[in-house]
Write a structure and sequence with these properties.
single chain, alpha/beta, 8-stranded parallel beta barrel, 13 helices, globular
């Protein structure tokens, strides 16, 4: 790859820890930053879906972003989530964003209103033309209700040099393969699904923006880095250790699962904001068992 090498490997989708009364727990957030960097992650993703950005105020988001930038101290690249289903509002958010310390924006495809492929293209065209930072597309049909087709992704990739990659979470390896085959040079194809990350890397992909890495950074990073280094046997050993734990993280919803894992490890309170709630006792016990069994 080339100029976007700093965003290859493992990007961790940071959770936003809350204290027992539901406020942002900044000491816990600092612990998470240090835990993930020590575990070998390659970059930090702030206020994506996993960060519960949908239930946070604009002031809270700004506070979290500035806190992460300050505590990171330039050690790792930072990708910031700025997306939505109102294009004009996304553009206003970009226009008022203090971009210092941010390396790229991650922008989710418009959700709920289900635009056509031409609508998705026009949405991202407006973002690309307005953004002072590189943009990573985020395709997650399971949450948005619509898919960014491979053809639309490739059209955007070839038309706008500051659209530098896609977080591809469609679950469709064929779609990823078409993008990988026809992408322009330096365009990143990043898995948005932990359990498909090594498969996408095997097709030529560039890594993952991961939920599981937030809970199990060392094992997960060892797996992804082995896959990127063309050491599939090593990657497979780590994959099998992580298999059931990663499954369990999503059994009762995200980020409930990863917050349960981090609570097991004593790093955060097991607190989410409604409408999200903690995982059930059965899933919590399953996560705890996997952590102990495989020393995750």
């Amino acid at each position: 790859m080339g100029k976007n090498n700093h965003l290859r490997g493992v990007g961790v989708a940071l959770v936003t820890p809350f204290n027992t009364v539901g406020d942002i727990d900044f000491p816990a957030l600092e612990r998470l930053i240090e835990y993930n960097i020590a575990g070998g992650i390659d970059y930090l993703v702030v206020l994506g879906t996993t960060g519960e950005s949908a239930t946070m105020t604009a002031t809270e988001k700004a506070e979290v972003l500035r806190f992460v930038i300050r505590k990171n101290q330039g050690r790792k690249p930072i990708v910031y989530g700025v997306g939505g289903n109102n294009t004009a509002e996304v553009l206003r958010n970009i226009a008022t964003l203090d971009t210092e310390g941010i390396d790229a924006l991650l922008s989710v495809s418009p959700y709920y209103n289900k635009p056509s492929q031409n609508g998705i293209y026009a949405h991202y065209k407006a973002i690309a033309e307005a953004s002072p930072l590189p943009v990573i597309l985020y395709n997650v049909p399971g949450r948005t209700g619509s898919n960014i087709s491979a053809a639309t992704t490739l059209r955007l990739a070839h038309d706008f040099s500051n659209i530098i990659g896609i977080k591809e979470a469609s679950g469709n390896l064929f779609q990823s393969a078409y993008i990988l085959r026809d992408r322009p040079e330096n365009f990143l194809v990043i898995s948005g699904e932990d359990n498909l990350a090594t498969s996408i890397i095997g097709l030529g992909g560039d890594g993952v923006i991961s939920v599981a890495a937030g809970a199990f950074p060392k094992t997960f990073c060892d797996m992804i880095h082995a896959a990127l280094d063309n050491k599939p046997e090593i990657a497979r050993v780590h994959y099998m250790k992580l298999l059931e734990a990663t499954d369990a993280l999503f059994e009762d919803g995200n980020p409930a699962g990863v917050k349960a894992a981090l609570h097991c490890k004593g790093l955060i309170e097991n607190k989410l904001r409604l409408p999200l709630v903690p995982v059930c006792e059965k899933v919590y016990a399953k996560i705890q068992t996997q952590i102990e069994k495989y020393s995750l």
